[in-house]
Specification:
heterodimer; A: mainly alpha; MetI-like fold; about 0% strand; B: mainly alpha; 2 domains; two-stranded antiparallel sheet; 14 helices
Chain lengths: ~290, ~280
């Protein structure tokens, strides 16, 4: 009896963790299940029968498809721009001592520590005063802005564990700085860049609050869902959400696998360890930095 | 690095300046707005939306505290007890948050809705009165907020727990500390930076959120975010809206500064030990 009790006590935290993970997956599971629902009215809230009809006609709503395309285009563009800009900042912050470095660090952290509603409102205030027409451009400006900080954090954590002797070796062997960057620095940074890119893409495609302030008449996927919520959300939204979820999970799994392979091949030891996830986890670090 | 920082200055710092200016303008949409140092926007905005302001910070405090209680044991289990399941567990924790935020909240709306099985079971066992609801209660909104911002708590906690040198905990036990004392006097203080980062990263976005209040609450659970969005986008009273946004930001900043002063010494101690290592 006491042995059993000790075993339970010893493993209590593991049971707890399993429960907590289940709790976190519940809403996603509900969405996936209800994508097979055959609702009687306009509202997809109660189960009334199984059908694959909505999966077969996933892209039957023209407006929704348009919104999805706008979201994908916006996410792709803002990811490309923010990864490029953010990587440059991260390189400068990690590798160079310069005047205003603390201010630059502060400038990176503060947008992540500002409620979205304030960022959205501030951007709208500026666009209103300038009389700028709201639309795709203003959305792109906003999305790049809130993605940059996250890109910097992820790429920086990768750079900190970077073995610079590899670059020196390349230089010693006669490579020009540009060749060194292209053939040594960039390939070693790639997992970090992919991680940062995925995060920026996810942030952009998911954003509702800031977009709602700065979209004008342009409609993204989350904005369309929000607009549809009052009238009753079509089941297709559940289907597309489930697809997006499956796709991002697959992309993440692929990145982690790729990263592990790259690490094995290069035999480089990044400080964050085996997976891409700790790099995301270090999102907490910059806030702690401001205190130092 | 120039262009990136320039982007942040142009589209983060400058907009804040314009929001500050807008907050001090007077006029209406029809007559146009003029800059007149209209400080009354602040006092009017605060007194009109006092209830939503206070509610936002109360809900944010509650959601942050609950998230910490849920996340700490989970992060601890992943960091120290998961073994080869570590990555899979981290993955399972982060994955749900790659579904659109709105959709996750709609998922909760479905779970808590009046004709969901959860409500009927709770009514049957007497946890909820007949005709009692889960939706449109403060509990539903706080639960939604807690859920939606949980990764912001889990990830920094995990990051700081994972970095702890386990030999320190073993040393405590070798010196006859009980497991419990070793946790309270070694593990917990060493994870303080994670706690500080996690609570800040949760509290700040929650205080400004309005999606949960809108989908899981009623007008009785409206938060300041709801007020700001309707002032900007529906009522088009830009000066009051800007003043209210500024107030939210100022209150958050003040709370963060006080909190860091208060929590700082402990958190810094954790960092010092790490450096000494």
């Amino acid at each position: 009896m006491s042995a059993a009790w000790r075993w339970i006590r010893h493993h209590a935290i593991v049971f707890y963790a399993a429960l907590a993970v289940a709790y976190m997956l519940i809403p996603v599971a509900v969405i996936a299940v209800f994508s097979f629902n055959d609702p009687e009215g306009k509202f997809n809230y109660s189960w009334s029968g199984f059908t694959t009809e909505h999966w077969e006609n996933a892209f039957a709503i023209a407006d929704l498809n348009d919104a999805l395309l706008v979201s994908l285009e916006l996410a792709a563009l803002s990811t490309a721009i923010s990864v490029a800009l953010g990587t440059l900042i991260a390189l400068a912050l990690v590798r160079h001592e310069f005047f205003g470095r603390r201010t630059a660090n502060f400038l990176i952290v503060i947008p992540m520590a500002t409620p979205e509603v304030v960022i959205g409102a501030a951007l709208l205030s500026m666009f209103l005063i300038y009389g700028l027409a709201l639309g795709f451009t203003t959305l792109l400006i906003a999305h790049v802005m809130f993605s940059i900080s996250f890109v910097v954090v992820v790429v920086r954590s990768r750079l900190i564990g970077f073995d610079r002797s590899l670059e020196e070796a390349a230089r010693d062997l006669g490579a020009t700085p540009l060749t060194t960057f292209r053939t040594v620095t960039l390939p070693l940074l790639t997992p970090g860049l992919i991680g940062a890119g995925l995060l920026a893409f996810a942030l952009s495609i998911d954003d509702f609050v800031i977009s709602n302030f700065n979209s004008g008449t342009t409609v993204t996927f989350p904005l369309w869902v929000y607009g549809a919520a009052q009238r009753g959300i079509p089941v297709q939204v559940y289907v597309i959400a489930t697809m997006l979820f499956a796709l991002t999970v697959a992309a993440m799994a692929f990145t982690i696998w790729q990263q592990r392979r790259a690490e094995r091949l290069a035999a480089v030891q990044p400080e964050t360890g085996e997976s891409g996830l700790p790099a995301l986890a270090s999102g907490g670090q910059p806030v702690a930095d401001t205190r130092a | 690095m120039g262009p990136g920082l320039l982007w942040l200055v142009l589209f983060f710092v400058v907009p804040l300046y314009f929001m500050g200016r807008l907050a001090l303008e007077s006029g209406t949409l029809e007559t146009g707005f003029r800059f007149t140092w209209e400080w009354s926007n602040f006092t009017d905005g605060i007194s009109l939306y006092e209830e939503q302001l206070i509610r936002s910070f109360l809900y944010a405090g509650a959601a942050t505290a609950i998230a910490l209680l849920i996340a700490y044991p989970l992060a601890y289990a992943i960091a120290f007890r998961a073994g080869r399941w570590k990555n899979a567990l981290l993955f399972a924790v982060v994955a749900p948050f790659f579904t659109t935020y709105l959709i996750r909240t709609i998922g909760w709306q479905t779970i808590l809705s009046d004709d969901s099985p959860v409500v009927s079971v709770m009514q049957a066992v007497g946890l909820l009165s007949d005709g009692g609801r889960l939706l449109a209660t403060p509990g539903a909104v706080i639960a939604g907020l807690t859920y939606n911002f949980l990764p912001f708590m889990i990830l920094p906690l995990y990051a700081s727990l994972e970095r702890i040198d386990e030999s320190l905990i073993e040393a405590a036990k070798d010196l006859y500390s009980s497991s419990r004392a070793a946790f309270w006097r070694v593990t917990l203080p060493l994870s303080a930076p994670g706690i500080v980062a996690g609570t800040l990263l949760t509290f700040i976005p929650v205080a400004g959120d309005y999606i949960n209040a809108e989908f899981l609450g009623s007008s009785n659970q409206a938060m300041v975010g709801n007020a700001i969005q309707s002032l900007y986008l529906e009522l088009r009273d830009f000066p009051t809206a800007a003043a209210l946004s500024f107030t939210v930001m100022a209150v958050i900043l003040a709370l963060v500064v006080v909190y860091i002063r208060f929590a700082g010494s402990e958190a810094l101690m954790g960092e010092e030990t790490e450096e000494a290592r």
